[in-house]
Write a structure and sequence with these properties.
The chain is 59% helix and 5% strand. The chain is mostly helical and 170 residues long. The chain has a two-stranded antiparallel ribbon. A hairpin with a 3-residue loop joins β1 and β2. α2 packs parallel to α7 and α3 runs parallel beside α5.
């Protein structure tokens, strides 16, 4: 049975590891040729810039990859929630006036995303079905598995790829 995540609609019926691989290749191709100013574009007023989306995706790879590793290595593991907006504020500064003055540049965020995704996919691709069924708990989502996490990550990446594609069209 395919796990249902908040990003299931984005993933659809796609196999999650293939979707992750293809999505990262598309993001890398899309953004690797951008000039610095292009990373500061947004797809809509008040929304994250391309640099911030790439930073968020890298943060997600870091946090969720860690969750998977902790669940695999720690029986009865309970994941800790994180506030994506507070994490972003640490990377970019807390106010619009300080945007761009703190944290990774667009190319650095892209490089981190691609590297973290490759490392996570290597782990996920090596897991047996029993390991993918490893349970862990989350304060907001309840009882989860590594397989749920993989599906979540794949749909989440596709969700943000749509935004990056919109930015590319500007």
């Amino acid at each position: 049975m395919t796990p249902q995540t908040p990003y299931s609609a984005d993933l659809g019926s796609r196999e999650p590891l293939s979707a992750l691989r293809e999505t990262m290749a598309r993001i890398q191709t899309l953004a690797s040729g951008w000039a610095p100013a292009q990373f500061e574009r947004t797809y809509a007023p008040g929304k994250w810039t391309a640099r911030e989306i790439l930073t968020h995706l890298a943060q997600t790879e870091l946090a969720l990859g860690n969750r998977a590793r902790m669940a695999l290595a720690t029986p009865g593991y309970t994941a800790q929630s994180f506030d994506q907006d507070r994490w972003m504020a640490q990377e970019t500064g807390a106010s619009a006036a300080s945007r761009g003055s703190r944290g990774a540049t667009g190319p650095v965020a892209l490089e981190a995303l691609v590297a973290l995704n490759a490392m996570n996919r290597a782990l996920f691709e090596s897991l047996t079905p029993a390991e993918r069924a490893t349970p862990f708990a989350h304060p907001e989502y309840g009882a989860l598995t590594i397989d749920w996490l993989i599906h979540q990550m794949a749909g989440h990446a596709l969700h943000h790829l749509k935004q990056l594609d919109q930015i590319e069209q500007l």
